[in-house]
Every structure is written in C-alpha cells, then in structure tokens.
Amino acid sequence: MSIRDRKAYVRAVKLISTHPWFRKDYEKLLTIHKTYFNQQIHEFEYFLPWHRWFILKYEDLLRRVSCRITVPYWDFTLTAGEPFTGAIWNKTAAGLGGDGVGPPRLCVKNGQFREGKWFLIRSAGGGCLKRNFLRDEIFPDLIALQQFLSMFSSADKLKDFELMLRNDFHNNIHFFIGGFGGTMSGLDSATAPEFFLLHAMVDKIWADWQKKSAKHLYPTEFLYQNGKMPGTEYYSRDFLNLSQQPRCTAVKYTGPDKKMKPLVAMIQKLSARPSVINRIPRRNWAHLRKEVIDIFKLKAVEQQRLKVLHLLFRPRVALKNNALQGVDRKLGFSVKKVQEMAGSGK
Ligand SMILES: [Cu+2]
Prior knowledge:
Elements lengths: L2 H16 L1 H16 L11 H19 L34 E2 L5 E2 L33 H10 L6 H21 L15 H17 L3 H4 L2 H4 L37 H11 L2 H4 L12 H7 L3 H12 L14 H6 L3 H10 L2
Antiparallel strand pairs: 1-2
C-alpha cells in the first residue's frame, strides 16, 4: 500500500470517528460489536459472515468521506518475526501509531490516535486508545498460513479451518496487540482503529479458502442457517460470496505483493508435504492462551480440538528468533532454508 493511500485511509478513519457528520453513525455501528460480543458473533455460527458484514458497514461509512477508500488488510504473516515493527504501527500520518505507555494507563501517546487528540466511543467510556503489545508472543508466519490453508483444504474441513482461523489468526492476535488491559483485548476492541485491518486479514484468509470450490464458497452450515445474524437484517448466506454482497457490492483482495510471490509460491508447494515443511526451523506459533479463552469464551470442546490440531503444526526444529538476521528475522524463518527444501524435492 502506498504512503499516499495509507495517509488517505488514516485521514478518513479520523474523519468518521471525530466529525459531527459521521460521529453518531460511527458510534452506533461500533457499539453493535460490543452488544453482541458474547452472543454468537465469536462462535462458529456467525463469526466469519458477521465480521464480513461489519467490515462492509464500516467501509460504507468511510466511503462517505471518499468513494475510493476500502479497508486494507494487515498481513501480519509478512512481519511475523517482528510484528510490531510493521508499517501499520507507524507514528506518522501514514500509520495507526505505536504501543501504549505504561502500565498502569497504557494510553497511546504518539501518532494520529494519541491521547488527548482522539477518543474511544462513548459506549467504551471515551478516554484514550490503549495498547500493550506482547512482544514475546509468536504470530503465525508465511509458512504457517500456507500450511494452514493446505492442511484444511478440503471443504468438509470447514469446522477445523474456522476454529483455527478464529483462534490462532484472530483471537490470539487481538490479545497480542491489546495485551493485559489494552483496547484490543476486550469488549471495546472494535473501537480500536487496528481492529478492522486485522479483521480484513481474517476475511481475506477465509476468502482464499473459499476460492477452492463452490462447496467452499457456499458451505451448507452457513447456507441454510435460519436466524438472521445478530444485530443485522441479513443472513449468513448474504455474505458468503465476496463479489456478490448486498446492494451489488463486490470486494476483491489483492496480494501477495509482487516481490513476495516467488517465495509464497515455493512455500505453497512445500505446504502439501507437512513432514518436509515442519523441518524448517521456526517458532511454534499455534497455541492456546488462557487469557484468550476467557476473553472469547472458547468452549471446552473447541479447546480440546485445538490442542489436537496444534500438534499438526509443530515445527520439528524450534528456533529462537534472534538467531536470524535481516529479512529472515522479519519473516521468522530462513528463506535460504525454504529454497533448499524446495530444491531438494525431498
Ligand atoms: Cu469481533
């Protein structure tokens, strides 16, 4: 994303969240997430389609500022080794600002959303945006994502796919950003500007999985749901096809970046062979956190299932991140090692 586009996005977010023209609609929309937080929108039934609806509604607001604006996705896999150095956390007008200061208060004191200049919505109690980056936590990397997509590539794996997407690519990340006491770690998370960039990433991963077949696109579990999605006038099925959303809205995610394409392609190929890819020294990214279970009220059966699934992704050789340098350090694994594995054909 160009600096210019980043700046335009941040400017639009600031406008809808502060200008009296938008403020009321903005508050109303974001409060819905809090109202239904523990009523199925973070469970299998509605998690994916509901948040797709939510992103679209937010985008509708942004488009009242400029019709060219869409919500970008934060591809945290590209900086999984050093997640808090990514451009998203830039303190200039092209980013969302950095970590909070503290404890105890944890207020963000730099960038466009800093304390005193920008406030959370009223239902969140107003006040400052709080962040408490958990810098030692392990984000899923590029290999993790490709292996994940490959492992659950069959349409009948929807349940496992959704569960791990929800927990490891979403619940955990919320907590890694918000930490103990930050805005992203609680009921008011939707009022943090980074919320939508994370959710767009989750939605993109789902969209990539959906591309595999018509059965992936329209799973019976979502297609024949009776009730409307909480707080909306829509059914899950209205949001299954990205290019045919209500009111003739089509969404298309771009990427991966041109310069990343060869590496992604290589990893994609290797991902079909877990025994090979798990030999690349990496950090163990798939995990279940007690705090995260509590925040999102993860069910006991889901916890059990996740423990089993996580074993499939455990790297055989554990790596300390500081063993890497440069690009490798940022990615969380050695590119040379991937090339070797891909070349050896073992
Ligand atoms: Cu949510």
